[in-house]
Amino acid sequence: MLLSITILGFIVTFLLLLNLKQSNKANIYLFFFLLINNTYSLSHYATVYSGNRYLIAIMLVHFTPLYLLIGPLFYFYVRGLLTDDHKLSKWDYLHFIPAVLFFINISPYVFHNWDYKLAYADNVIKDPHNFLNIDYLFMPSSISFLTRPIFAIFYVIASIVLIFRKGLNENYLTHQANLIFKWLALFILISIILYLGFLFFTITSFITQDVNFADKQGDFILYSTIGSLLLLNLSLLFFPNILYGLPQLDYAIVTKQNRQEEERLGIAEDVKKQSRSFEISPEKLNLLSLKINRYIESKPYLNPDFNLTVMSTDTEIPVHHLSYYFNEHLQVSFNTWKNDLKIDHVIYLIRNGSGEILTLDALAKQAGFGSRTSFFNSFKLKMGVTPSEYLNRLD
């Protein structure tokens, strides 16, 4: 079961990677957080259940420095959601120092030959508690194993403190803020169960000197941990809108293209510098809508290469903000919105006589459709009839 959940975890993790372009960039920390957690799960499977000397030789030690990154990644993800900013400051890189020190500590094993590692794996298969019998550089292996869950729990607590300092618990007035607050509460609860279970297992195995005994005695904690990891992975599939995060939508900020237009519309300078807040207010959404409507006046959607990334670059609006606006506010996908505008252009051409001199393929090409099929499907979806039927009705 553990292996199946781990494989599922890797699948969900890479699905998250595929969606990073259109989601909050803070999800990059969530991606690595899940990747490392599932890597640890695979390591646990390799050590306790697999009996495979090659898998143990690869998994048991080499990846241990990564486990010290779980806590910082957790914290950076939560902070990124709350601030709508994924960037790290120069001081943030200090959080990576323990992982670097752990890598230095295990370097004697890392640079040993393959035969040495296989011999170590054979000893672990004979007695799983032999995983502690390895020469590290300056830190005993027992301290190394204990540090990982304690380190992770510390960062989970720091994240809880951050949430209350930011006041998210008092400001979930909108649907998205409410969703993110509930998601973070679930995320934190799952992680606490996960790392307390890991800590319990580690301490028990040290006391009993028997990893298998600790595994059996800790069945409840183990299955709770596995269930929590499964729930965490599945929640991303059933609640994809959490990937947008909390868009601050502070779009009164001047952009290169719209500076003169915003001045003409009388958007005050103090509004342009408004502070960010968790509330996605109607005023902010209206301003975002205004910017988008002004942008599409030049009909960029007629370009066959027009996509969400192009629109983000042209408008200086982050991709995940645009995705949130279309999917959550307009309740329509970007592609449907784009194709509807193309169809509106085709209707305009037809009503102004172009339909009499242009073929349907030519109309599709002028509207920026990449294929005849895409044009026909989009036209029927919007108008309820095919282009040919529409032309016949006009006749």
Individual helix count? 21
Helix content: 55-70%
Shape: elongated
Evaluate the radius of gyration: 27 Å
Got a strand count?
A: 0
Mean pLDDT: 81
Low-pLDDT windows of residues: 268-275
Compute the separation of the termini in Å. 65 Å
Strand content: under 5%
Main sheet attributes: strand count, strand direction, barrel closure: none
Q: Quickly count the domains.
A: 2
Which structural class best describes the helix and strand composition?
mainly alpha
- Name the helix and strand elements from N-terminus to C-terminus, one letter apiece: HHHHHHHHHHHHHHHHHHHHH
Provide an overview of this structure:
With 395 residues, the chain is mainly alpha-helical. The chain folds into two domains: 2-244; 332-395, Arc Repressor Mutant, subunit A, CATH 1.10.10. Helices cover 69% and strands 0% of the residues. Helix 5 runs parallel beside helix 8 (141-166) and helix 9 runs antiparallel to helix 11. The radius of gyration is 27 Å and the shape is elongated. The N and C termini lie far apart (65 Å). The relative contact order is 0.08. Mean pLDDT is 81; it is low at 268-275.
Draw up the topology in text.
Layout: H1 2-18, H2 27-50, H3 53-59, H4 64-67, H5 70-83, H6 97-110, H7 114-126, H8 141-166, H9 175-208, H10 211-217, H11 219-238, H12 259-264, H13 269-272, H14 282-295, H15 308-315, H16 319-329, H17 334-351, H18 354-357, H19 360-366, H20 372-383, H21 387-394
Attribute tags:
mainly alpha, Arc Repressor Mutant, subunit A
Q: What would a concise description of this structure say?
A:
With 395 residues, the protein is an all-alpha fold. It folds into 2 domains: 2-244; 332-395, Arc Repressor Mutant, subunit A, CATH 1.10.10.
